[in-house]
Amino acid sequence: MTVSRNMGLIDRGLRFVLGAALIIATLMGAIGIWGWVGLIPLATAFIGFCPLYRIIGVKTCSDC
Questions:
Q1: CA-based diameter of the chain, in Å?
Q2: What is the pTM of this model?
């Protein structure tokens, strides 16, 4: 089973930065355990696919 990408580079970059920032803040003790939710945007950034985008019919990539 292959997953088609539905996220563009800017979207992926923003998700990567947000996810990494949440995880780093959690590891440094600046925020609570909820910061591990940063794994979700980090994972979708690496995969290039967002399940919610598929449900609502959004694509932020120009070549997919």
A1: 40
A2: 0.85
What are the pLDDT tens digits along the chain (64 aa)?
677 899 999 999 999 999 999 999 999 999 999 999 999 999 999 999 999 999 999 999 988 7
* Cα separation, 19 vs 37, whole angstroms: 8
Closest CA to 42 of 54, 58, 7, 3: 7
Q: Is the Cβ–Cβ distance between 61 and 5 less than 8 Å?
A: yes
Name residue 57's amino acid: G
| Rounded Cα–Cα distance for residues 25 and 34 (Å) | 10
Give the amino acid at 25. Answer: A
